[in-house]
Amino acid sequence: AGQKQTGNNFWDSLYVFPQIGMGYQYLNFGNPEILGHANSVFIYERLPLWRPKGNFVLNARIMFGLAYINKIWSFENYQNIAISSHVNVHVGLCMDAGIRLTDKLSMNAGVRLTHFSNGKLKSPNYGVNVATSYMGLTYFFSGRSEKNIQPVDKPLLPKWRRELIYSAGMTTISAYERGNYFISTLVFNMI
Predict the structure, then answer these.
(1) What is the per-residue DSSP string for 44-83?
(2) pLDDT at position 81, please?
(3) E strand residue ranges, the chain
(4) What distance in Å separates the CA atoms of residue 41 and residue 69, rounded to the nearest whole number?
(5) Rounded distance between C-alpha atoms, residue 100 and residue 56, angstroms
(6) What are the pLDDT digits (tens) for 125-158?
(7) pTM for this structure?
């Protein structure tokens, strides 16, 4: 389920009125005894990359959320070296194309890359990467009020922006060595 941006902010038109929303994904890893399956909820932002006049649109979508994976590494399930905790981060990137068929119906097809990881809070953690393709129909219950919207020519942004970002966390070395280690980083950006 997604919501189109209203145009109240300059970045709405700068990014051709992106759509934000949330979703659910069930993923069967193909080996139920060792790898199991994942259930995840995520938020996303769909950015129109190319929208020529007419009913066609090419989108990029970024997703971020949490996943529950039912089969994890243990001494009994030692072959699963990909995931060692039930709760993981879900990160995804999609490219899709859509064609509006009617005012309330569109057809879409695309490719999706999905990554699951616990950020090495627990080892082993190689993570799981999955590439999928999809095709489907979207029904708009209230109809579509889209127009062929063009981005602004020159956004009203300052010339230079400075950021100082500090982040910290915990990591482990391996499943066989006990202990968590504090990690941190300091980043300076000029944009």
Answers:
(1) EEEEEEE--SSSEEEEEEEEEEEEEES----STTTT--S-
(2) 87
(3) 2-4, 19-28, 37-50, 56-69, 87-100, 105-117, 128-139, 162-171, 181-190
(4) 12
(5) 7
(6) 888 999 999 898 888 777 655 554 555 555 555 5
(7) 0.71
